[in-house]
Every structure is written in structure tokens, then in C-alpha cells.
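Kindly inspect this today.
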Amino acid sequence: MKVELLLENKFAKRHDFKSYYILSELEQFLGRKANIRDISNIWVKNNLCLYDDEFHGYFEIEDVEKYKEYDRDKFSRNSSDENKQIYDWLKQTGWKQTNPGQIVVYKDGRIKLSEGNHRLAIALKLGIKSIPILFHFFSG
């Protein structure tokens, strides 16, 4: 997707030195739910990032799992008591948007779940289907 096309379709906006878009407007433009690779490609190819917000949207857990930092079941820093607390909390409340997982998207196309790896591992065990995500975009 070219920036001009995105701007022409009025879902991308320029603000100072940065161009951005809102997820719901991208999905309307695409005619489908956006995935993490879509968001990465728009950043890498067009220098467009999601509008700053407290969280950007809910994404399918299978899509997020592709970008986990590493398997927290095998390499957990948390004690079993801490993991049990996280398990109980997610089981009772679900994964709320007030505490989203955080994905870093680099300009070279790398994508990493930087925050929320423990919660992801537990959410998978609980069968949670989608989780809230906040994206961070890095040029360097």
C-alpha cells in the first residue's frame, strides 16, 4: 500500500513530522480485520504508524503468538505462585485493555511481543481467543 493511496482514502493523516492512521479506519479500507503483519508492512513500507493511544485493538491470540519473545513456560522468571496469580486473574477477568500486551515493530520488519509474554502463555492455556495490544514503532 502506498502512502498516497492511504492518504487519498482519508484514513491516514499527517501530523507534524509523522503520518498515522486509526486501526478501525484501516480495517474499513481493507474490508477485513487487520493483522499484525499488515500493521508492520504499513510501517516498514510507508512510514505510517497507528495513532497513539492506550491500546490499539484486540488481536487473535494465534497471530500474537508468532511474535512472542520466547516460550515463557520454559523460561519463566516468575515463581509458580506468581504464575498462579496471573492464571487466576486472567481466568476471572479476561485480558483487559487497561493492561495490553505490547508489540514492538522495527523499521527493518522485525516484530516482537515485548510485554505480555507470561500472560500470553497463560491466556493460551485458558483458551482466550483475542488479546489487547498496544504497538510501538521504532525507526532505528
